[in-house]
Amino acid sequence: MSVRIKICGITSIDNAQAAIEAGADALGFMFYEPSPRCVAPEQAAAIIAELPAHVAKVGVFVDADEATIRNTATSAGLDTLQFHGNESPDFCTQFELRTIKAFRVKDRESLGQLTDYRTDAWLLDSYVQGVPGGTGERFNWDLAVEANRLGRPILLAGGLTPDNAGEAVDQVAPFGLDVSSGVEAAPGRKDAAKMATLIASAKGNSAADGLWTGY
User: Is 3.30.200.20 the CATH number for 4-202?
Assistant: First the structure.
């Protein structure tokens, strides 16, 4: 089964359709106001209403409260929640939707908290002080290889581009790649050619299976 690809920071239906045409298995919608890729729930809902059923609709939250997350998930039509802040293990597992917990990997000690979280998947991103994610920086992928042995599907993020996506898959063998700035023409605006090149490279030019299920 080929690696899954999540294109994060979708802000328009054009970008969403281009990502799907390129073979994306999941799209991420940012609900964190400081981000240049932030969208309102009604904006996300308008895009999600046009998406095929097989594409996962992931909402990205940073230390939002439970009510906000539940209301946003319902109004936007999300099927997966991704937590990028300091959310506790119990907080992350109280929701009925699929869940992903993101971790900012600085060193081997960063992996110590992973097994506390019984979410459906773990996302490994680069540690940059004061930035919760979307840094465009790459971390030591040897640590991701270690995390891959801990019993949960791994989504690899941080500094992924069309030039290194194939290398990332070969080295880490993750469940999926989570890509944002590496396929952008500008913050919040995706580049269709970059998305197509990255996804083809990551999937080894094989056809996408179109499934996000399995974790």
Answer: no
